[in-house]
Amino acid sequence: MTRDELFENIKRKKSYLCVGLDSDIKKIPAHLLTTEDPIFEFNKAIIDATHKYTVAYKPNIAFYEAHGISGWKSLEKTINYINSNYSDVFTIADAKRGDIGNTSLMYARAFFDAMNFDSITVAPYMGEDSVTPFLQHPNKWAIVLALTSNKGAFDFQFTEDKESETLYQKVLKTTSKWGSADNMMYVVGATKADMLKDIRNIIPDHFLLVPGVGAQGGSLQEVTENGINSKCGLLINSSRAIIYNSDKEDFAEMANKAAHELQQEMEHLLKKHNII
Amino acid sequence: MTRDELFENIKRKKSYLCVGLDSDIKKIPAHLLTTEDPIFEFNKAIIDATHKYTVAYKPNIAFYEAHGISGWKSLEKTINYINSNYSDVFTIADAKRGDIGNTSLMYARAFFDAMNFDSITVAPYMGEDSVTPFLQHPNKWAIVLALTSNKGAFDFQFTEDKESETLYQKVLKTTSKWGSADNMMYVVGATKADMLKDIRNIIPDHFLLVPGVGAQGGSLQEVTENGINSKCGLLINSSRAIIYNSDKEDFAEMANKAAHELQQEMEHLLKKHNII
Prior knowledge:
Two copies of one chain form a homodimer. Chain A has 276 residues and is of the alpha/beta class. Chain A has one domain: TIM Barrel. Helices cover 43% and strands 15% of the residues of chain A. In chain A, helix 10 links the parallel strand 7 and strand 8 (234-238). Chains A and B meet through helix 3, helix 4, strand 3, helix 5 and helix 6 of A and helix 3, helix 4, strand 3, helix 5 and helix 6 of B.
């Protein structure tokens, strides 16, 4: 998917919501456990119930890998289901990969060729040759970790060099030269919303994938005020607050409700900022 | 596997060789392509031919993921084959994972519980809660990226803070407090052998997993002189130079030869340093 197509979907759906498919067999409603592939049945119901309000889906790959081959099957069925039924959503393999060049190339094959995701999240620690293999597929995206939403973000990402530049700032400045706003995005945690203005000074145009709204405590409004740009430039992820809004038979209906509420808030903010 | 068990295996086999199973369907001998699972058949033959000289095997997970479910099957068969037949080798899932706590926990399940690897390589960028979930399994290991062997290592790993401490030094100092030399190792590229003395000042006891000998240009002797400690403390990885020593029917025999040559050199170095 191109940046323009993504922006068109955002305007049409009046939403910049990404739903995180952190689908955990221990948390999905009990009545699904008797089906052949409970994780896929759960995802399918969540996707059907939320796609109207959602511009992106983000399966968290760890939750599938944890089940070995059967988890990998659930993942493949999920991405195929999305690609077959809802071509207007952007898909993110939240895999946080990154390795030497020939190995990153293999990860690109796994997620872009074998599974046809639009994008993959990538860790920057190993530098240029670990990221650029993800930038060589037309209309595919690398989403680089910059400033994450977790407590551990403070261990290294805020380390200042001699010019008082933090590591996350250096990551933004350095990696953004390897591609463009048409094939790179950045992960910036919603719990660090006050840093978004500074981040926008470094990368005014790139889309930001923002986890941490909801369960992790980030504020949608604050993130939007500080991070929005003329093409929206934000994908706000919500996982647990949507997919586990109920653990009963009404889980899909309740996910729909939670997604709709976020979409309504987003519509208001998009209008406020003259995007729609 | 415990650190003492690993050290016993090193002394008994007179080797600290790790064979990297970067098994690529495009590079394995053509006659295997007619078998049901060419990647597994290749790995099995390589393992049978090299285990005598090898203390560790390191499947590079990207090479398996690139094939989706069938790749995941080859990986499971490979780790099961090693665990069933050669309990005296240490197994490394070279996966370079790392995510927020609940997600890293899922990766730990994938590689420690579902597949029973001894260890997994982990990227440090996201900090403490991305690493510690890998340290809670008895006799399992997190192998943290410190100084990698690739060109991109220079992009961020050498960034100096105000006290002239590089990022990789900070990673070593900070992360080593989260566990011990009994459940953590570090990736240090052989191409950076001159930094090994400095690294040994920071972490005298930890095992180092050293990629980059052979195809990437690192020197076994230089790495050993600068990095060895009283319990050896080194696992030197070789992938391409062993597993692709021949692309003909004699590939296993030639892998045996390449592994034996490295083992002989290692035996000499272990004796020189009074380890055996």
